[in-house]
Amino acid sequence: MNSASNRFLSRRGFLAATTGLAISLPMRPARASAVDERSLKAAPSRARLAGPDRPPASAWAYNDSVPGPVLRLRQGQPVRITVENGLAEDTTVHWHGIRLPNAMDGVPGLTQPPIAPGAGFTYEFTPPDAGTFWYHPHADSLVQLGRGLAGALIVEEAEPVAFDRDVIWLMQDWRLAADGQIAGGFGSAMDAAMSGRVGNLVTINGMVPADQTVRAGERIRLRLANAALARMMALRFEGHRPIVLAIDGQPCKPHEPEDGRLVLGPAMRVDIALDMQGTPGGRYRVIDDFYDGLAYTLTTLAYDKAPSLRARPLDAPPALPRNPLPEPDLHNAVRQEIVLQGGMMGGGKLAGVGGMMGMAMPGVMGSAAWAINGMSMTGDGHAGMAPQFTLRRGATCRLTLRNETAWWHPMHVHGFSLSVLSRNGSPVPHRQWQDTVLLAPKDTVECAFVADNPGDWMLHCHVADHQMAGLMTVFRVT
Ligand code: C2O
Ligand code: CU
Ligand code: CU
Hints:
The chain is mainly beta. It has helices at residues 141-146, 189-193, 464-468, and strands at 36-47, 57-62, 68-74, 79-85, 94-96, 120-125, 131-136, 151-156, 165-174, 201-204, 212-214, 219-226, 233-237, 243-247, 250-255, 262-264, 269-275, 283-288, 296-303, 333-342, 370-372, 389-391, 396-403, 409-413, 418-423, 426-434, 436-439, 444-450, 455-461, 472-477. It comes from Rhizobium loti.
């Protein structure tokens, strides 16, 4: 993103309110048996993405809010979420990263019929894992997600974990036209076969980020979620040392990220402990420099003048409690390989910087630019394709993801968390469980999981354009 293509990002001086960015942990009685009732309505709405002095953009929203409301659920507590469709097209809701019964997974034609306009569907599940997740439609995904339908889903630990503040940053990337409206042209051939629809405006919790007001000495649990269609991010916190506590909702050994940057492909989440060790009154930038030469300031940590909350720095943050994930049995594992193929030649991180971006091209929605193991499944999952492979319930699967293409792909598996074993032959240093594994061009990543949950499950790239254009498959657990 250069300054020319990102004129909206500099227009943040007028934004004063930061309250929308900080959500403190509500106190809720831990009554694990009662069913938590929630409701979501997807419908056309408007969003002031670029700030209060700009005309609002027409958007699609859950409960009239972009992003949708933060759903804070509790680990082990059953929830019933009633979804109403106020759009003029079919939709569903997928609870990204939650291990739940197949019928609740929200994939139209595969796990449920689509929710027709005016109709509804009730999702019921009990989140087994605490952590940071999110929800989004799984129908006409590129357009519905790209017009704003997404929200954070936080599952609180059964036993609360103490931080001074618990903050979510749900990041979305928009391609706005000159009039401030969301640009059309979803699914252009250019986007589909290259880096996907990377936009020109990044928001945090639905707004161009203002300064984030912080207090010296406080320890924040910051939940980062990349809800972009295609934009990858690599965040650096100037003057701070974030400690990674969880990846894709699953706790890991607390560690500093490699080269200090937090890399988030679309759909990925990272929870960090952020100790405010800066100076009262100081200002520190949060920089995204994923795309070479296109670094920009996402937001600024603005310290108030108050003296530090603490006389001396805190000890290193403790690990979060582990979730009840089944342990893979690597010695008796079934091996499967997923090979990613297709896309344009050349490659790199970003296509269409400058002139090519947003170029009018005939839509290729439904046509295939990509393939998995030689087969292209396009759309959202409704094409009744035979499963790529079938696993016996309870078996451990050693899954190799091999990227033969020249592009980056955040590969996402529904219904399971993958234990990430190695990348390009080197063991992954901290035990990591991920539902979305980012593959650089030519990367090979080996993962393992226990097929403990029966049903037909999606496995796809979370760059929405890639998913729609063939980088998707299904596997079955019987
Ligand atoms: Cu975020 Cu098919 O999922
Ligand atoms: Cu998912
Ligand atoms: Cu991809």
